[in-house]
Fold this sequence. Notes:
This protein has one helix at 2-12; strands at 15-24, 28-30, 80-85, 89-103, 106-115, 149-157. By secondary structure, the chain is mainly β. The strands form 2 sheets. Strands 1-4-5-6 form a 4-stranded antiparallel β-sheet, covered by helices on one side. The two termini are 30 Å apart.
Amino acid sequence: MADLNSAASLFISGWQLSGIYQFQSGAPINFSNIFFNGSFDEIDLQGDQRSTDRWFNTTAGFVTASSAQPVNNVRTFPLRLSNVRTDAINNIDLSVIKKTQILEGKNLEFGRSSSTPSIMSSCPAPNTNVTQATFGQIVASNQANYSRRIQLTVKFVF
């Protein structure tokens, strides 16, 4: 019976769990110097209205004709708008470590670490060139954050 208790104790004890959660609002989107005949408040779309085909309101008053774009003048449109941002960073990192004593003063540690194991991906910035057909769309095929990563470790501590 004592052997059963020590075997169960060997399996049950020595576990360590840690995690880090990170949330950041997305970075402000850079715009070129363009002509705009609307309200800045109408440019941002709420999260449920936003998609990769329409990240912000492209009909809010942007002048899209190539011939109507400023060439050599003082900036008339802000570089960034505080309410028009890229995708938020929503990240969780988890780690599980099992520490097992194998001899007096000697331990074996098995670990598994995961980065962003279950949170959704982050899209890159949308196209802000008003003269292109993809204006306001996210057309890049990559994601802006790291892909999901899993790391397994074995460490002998003496």
